[in-house]
Amino acid sequence: MKQDMIVILDLGSVENTTIAREIRDLGVYSEIYPHDITVEEMKKLPNVKGIILSGGENRVVDGTPVDIDPAIYDLGIPMISIDHPTSKTETKLDNLPTEDELKTFVFDVCKSEANWNMKNFVADQIELIKQQVGDKKVLLALSGGVDSSVVAAMLIKAIGKQLVCVHVNHGLMRKGESEDVVEVFRNQLDANLIYVDATDRFLDKLEGVSDPEQKRKIIGNEFVYLFDEEANKLEGIDFLAQGTIYPDIVESGTKTAKMVKSHHNVGGLPEGMKFELVEPLYQLFKDEVRACGIELGLPPHMVYRQPFPGPGLGVRCLGAITKERLEAVRESDAILREEFEKAGLDKKVWQYFTVVPDFKSVGVKNNERCFEYPVILRAVNTIDAMTATIELLDWEVLLKVTDRIVKEVANVNRVLYDLTPKPTGTIEWE
């Protein structure tokens, strides 16, 4: 990487990603590392111009006071501390740094150059992909979502026909989504696309599994096993490309940070996998992924498509997945998307979806008692997926969506609206 970098060491602060984003907005790359990174590991990081020690009260992580490797203080790299400094080499800032303070530290003290931008990033990644892959082939899971689409565009720029795209219908897709993926990528974009219908395979593996972490790992493992099978049918497949992005890395935890939730493409891969990973987006926040897509020339409607989790509707059909509730999630989600598009909310709201929990409530349908599932609506706005606010919907929209869902979706008798921001809730329920 040619760009200068400011390293943020996590000593317990909840503002790490905010600081990283603010530094990137200044045109300088920034990345978060755990507080116990060794001096040897620090020396291997490219172009480190400055270090920010970002801690909570008394520098506490999970209830334990922490500090950094003392040898890092002797590297001669400029440092600032946001709480309580413990070394004379640190400059203390009592609160979050202002924009002017960050500019002073990043440019005047650290002598960084504002060379972090999408044009440079794309050029760097294309060169790195060429060096990593050589003349070998790469297998890519192409869901049609933003992340996999941007990865595909970047790999096509870097290695062309060496890329083999595989779309897996795991039975957990949104209504009509697999059909759309095949139409757009195979028929319109002329991608080298293999379509695999693995619905029964995935649902059989998930039968009776209620723990969300176990569901995510099963789905992640099964994807890799399936790709291994597909690769064995082809020649020269040595690499697996993934759309891992920076929030996936942060939320899945580091060797010291507490995990929020695992992501199917972070730490969920089985031991002994034969592929080498290609993950060109792992440094980017979600809005940066979209900017990268525009830089690569992808059409805006593809770049600004609503996010969809790797495990698909599997994490929106809460608890053990049943075909009955899975169908309720799929149909209610389709209704929500239709009504949001009619109301112009599809361009205003960052992510919106439905969730069906694994419990029922008493209701009345056709003048008879019924015992059926509720549907939970969620609509959030965010910049980087690390924090999120709730979209305050008009009652008219909510009532229209509710009316359609209870009338058109089988086995549903209630509709609820989730008003919880992130934090304390995550964007998805599982």
Explain how this protein is built.
The chain is an alpha/beta fold. The chain has three domains: 5-109, Rossmann fold (3-Layer(aba) Sandwich); 118-303, HUPs (Rossmann fold); 316-417, GMP Synthetase, Chain A, domain 3 (2-Layer Sandwich), CATH 3.30.300.10. The protein is built from 13 helices and 17 strands. The protein has helices at 16-25, 39-44, 99-109, 118-133, 146-159, 177-188, 199-206, 212-232, 246-252, 286-295, 300-303, 323-342, 395-408; strands at 5-11, 29-34, 48-55, 60-61, 64-65, 79-82, 90-93, 137-141, 163-169, 193-197, 237-241, 276-278, 351-355, 361-365, 368-381, 389-390, 412-417. A five-stranded parallel sheet has the order 2-1-3-6-7, covered by helices on one side. Strand 14 (361-365) and strand 15 form a beta hairpin. Helix 4 packs across helix 5 (146-159), helix 5 crosses helix 10 (286-295) and helix 12 (323-342) packs antiparallel against helix 13 (395-408).
Task: State the end-to-end CA separation.
Answer: 35 Å
Q: So, CATH architecture of the largest domain?
A: 3-Layer(aba) Sandwich
Instruction: Tell me the number of strands.
Output: 17
What is the gyration radius calculated from CA atoms?
A: 23 Å
Tally of alpha and pi helices: 13
What's the name of the CATH homologous superfamily of the largest domain?
HUPs
**Strand-residue fraction?**
15-25%
Report low-confidence residues grouped into runs of 5 or more.
Answer: 254-268
User: How are the strands ordered across the major sheet?
Assistant: 2-1-3-6-7
